[in-house]
Amino acid sequence: MTDLILDTQRGDRRVRMLWLVPITPGKFKQFRKKLNESARVFGQRLGISRSYVKKIEGGSLAPSRRVEEKFRELQSSIRGVPVIHERVILSRFKIPDQVRLLSSPRRCRGHKRWMIFRTPQQVYCSKECERLWRRENRKGVSKRRKK
């Protein structure tokens, strides 16, 4: 799950979302290589064992919440900037002051707008958007009309 921080003004429809960049095995290894450290030394910095570092880099284990926090602290101390994405989204409804989102923002397949979908399986912002996208991307239909 992604950590989201929402910043709204009372009764506003605009939401400024800040979310932490997910830690992938590739990013974990790339950062260690960038520091030019062995897995043992890198693990000591994070307070974990060498084998746990290798399992995270290999993708067989996900980092724990504590390891993620230490990794982000290390990244921000070296880079000087916390690893956070920021985006402003517009809602159809007024947004209360305290909101907790349980899913990550993704792009709608049809309109390419950033959305927070109700379910993880949802990929279109509306049924109309889905119909339009399917009509435009039908197999066997030429995209260009013949004159």
Kindly describe this structure.
There is one protein chain. A hairpin with a 6-residue loop joins strand 4 (106-107) and strand 5 (114-115). A 3-stranded antiparallel β-sheet has the order 1-2-3, with no helix packed on it. The chain is elongated. It contains 5 helices and 5 strands. Among the domains are: 25-79, 434 Repressor (Amino-terminal Domain), CATH 1.10.260; 105-147, no CATH class. Mean pLDDT is 77; it is low at 1-5. By secondary structure, the protein is an alpha+beta fold.
Question: Keywords for this structure?
Answer:
three-stranded antiparallel sheet; two-stranded antiparallel ribbon; 434 Repressor (Amino-terminal Domain); 147 residues; 5 strands; 15% strand; alpha+beta
Write down the overall mean pLDDT: 77
Query: Helices and strands: which structural class?
Result: alpha+beta
- CATH fold-level name of the domain at 25-79: 434 Repressor (Amino-terminal Domain)
CATH class of the domain at 25-79: Mainly Alpha
Q: What is the count of β-strands?
A: 5
Question: Percent helix among the residues?
Answer: 25-40%
Q: Within the largest sheet, what's the order of strands?
A: 1-2-3
Radius of gyration based on Cα positions: 21 Å
Helical element count? Answer: 5
Strand content bin: 5-15%
Major beta-sheet overview = 3 strands, antiparallel
> What is the CATH architecture annotation of the domain at 25-79?
Orthogonal Bundle
Low-confidence stretches: 1-5
Shape: elongated
What is the first-to-last residue Cα distance? 51 Å
The succession of helices and strands, N to C, reads: EEHHHHEEEH
